[in-house]
User: Fold this.
Amino acid sequence: MTHNDETDVGALYERARTGDKSGLEKVLAELGSGVARSVECRIPDKHASLITADDVMQVTYLELWLDYRDRLPATVHELKRLLYRIAETNLQDVLRELDADSGKELAVLGDHEYRVTNVVYARTKNRIASATADGTVRVWDAITGRQLGLLPGYDGGVRYMAFSPNSRHLAIGSEDKTVRVWNTDRGAQVAVLCGHEKAVTCLAFSPDGDRIASGSNDWTVRVWRWGARRQLAVFRGHTHNVWGLAFSPKGDRITSVSVDRTVRVWDAHSGTELLVLRGHEGFVRNVAYSLTENHIASGSDNNVRIWDAVSGECLKVIQGSGDVQAIAVGLPQFPWRALLRGPETVIESVEGSRGVAYLPYRLNDILTYPSGQTWAGSVDNHLYIVTLEGGAK
Assistant:
């Protein structure tokens, strides 16, 4: 759409908002073609003979007219986003019904009895672990959705989990101030690490899997040789709760983020504070390194910041929150990213930040699959898998 086209559509929409029904029809015809193309790309081949983009759009237009004719969005841009959201909801509703008819539920990994509080992905074994508010932890096959194991509850609930690099062990931090390590193949607890004075809120394994870093509401970062159940170091410097941790790929640095809105880089062995990165305006929740160690990605509720890992300079700000590990790695492995923006989840291209899909709900604890076009996340007491089909076209 050219600039003149946008101007014409904008003028039509202004008249439509004052009651010009024919103007609204023309605007929807103009905007709806792009939405229909997005819908068409996302219809699986197995359902292509049963549903078309036109089917979805007819229902979408009707729903828009019935529910929003007296309260249309203020701008054409907002109307287009609303069309995307309604069309996506309608498409997913139909696909769920079709999948239910074939006896296969693809979008949801079971219903949890309580709200999902944390989700982690085991990249080498295609497993997902989910924790709920009652303190239980479930392990799932990330492809089939089959539940593989159920770990017992923790007093006060689970705050954070992390898989070891070989995916054989799952570390769990909880309100009871401990870090517990489980062998997920055997379903057996193999270590309990005690030392924090308040809830354990974040965890990270070293690249070799021998060490665990843990952060807490006691404002400290602790490093453990977990196999020996031995504490190696305590890092002090944050002035509020620690909410995220990451080892550098070489394992010689640890980066932590906090409610104090800072990103701090430490020598992983001596505990010397090397850098303090400032710029986030809200609580900083998660952090990750690029594979080259040149960059650090840190995420808050409102944005993700990319930093130079040596100088500490902020290189880029991405609006929204998402999987900082995938964002840190970036192209070519992850050409698309899923981001929370307001009440919705946006899937956009890394190159050019072009939105290609809009989900009408907030997908929390977003995880990115190695394919780069599938994500997992939680909505209340459900764990969802979302796949971008045809997104690279």
